[in-house]
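Look at a sample.

——
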Amino acid sequence: MLRFGIDLGGTKIELIALEGSQVVRQCRVPTPSDSYAAIVEAIAQLVEQAEHELQRPGTVGIGTPGALSRRTQAIKNSNTQVLNGRPLDRDLAERLGRPIRLQNDANCFALSEAIDGAAQAADVVFGAILGTGTGGGVVVRNESVLGCNAIAGEWGHNALPWLTASDEPLPPCYCGLRGCIETYLCGAGLRRDHAQHTNQQLSAAEIAQLAATGDPAASASVERYCERLARALASIINVLDPDVIVLGGGLSLIPRLYARVPELWQRHVFSDTIDTRLVPARHGDSSGVRGAAWLWPGAG
């Protein structure tokens, strides 16, 4: 049997079909983000079309922003607002006539990299997505850890630890607090920090490109980013002590992170030796959708 993975994003819905670990079909459609019913129907049609073309049924796993509330069994904390308060897995199960497995997209990213990605064979994996937001997921022996509140891995809404003067003023976060890790480590955080120090309005990608050419101001901004990322990940190591930390998202493409951050986190990790590896995702942008397919590990 095939495994279908769905990545439900704010602008696109992506489907892949896995046979073993091989992708045998992949397609995307725009997300009708203003209509919950249209989202359900778009996902169902993607699955049905793929099954028709492949002439085989499959299991369906979905990675979505937000998570299923333990209390209501409906989506919470999604930045696609029409999903919040909706029982997406149950509605899709009814529409497709089969059980559905659903997890947060960062959990799916971490699961993909743990099963056959950059953290393959590691016992404890932390996956961190550095992009529009700052998500995280925890995998132990190839099983996602959800937690009793369904928020395991949500490091982005902890406060940035070991604050320094350069971190002031604490930026506001959409969650209602100030100084969250996400406000510093997302793409907008790097842009804001660079503008604060240079008065230049550049994208995160442009800052990274300039830093790679040796531009002093951009290099300084990337160095501050590395230092903050090191502090944030040191707090993860002190609590979780993972074998591997895998980075995904657009900012994970900055090469300097993988040498510099482990150097910088040493001063904050409570250990005489630090064997945790920091690595880029093997499957890149496809990790989330692959992880959604792997929510059914015994299929196929």
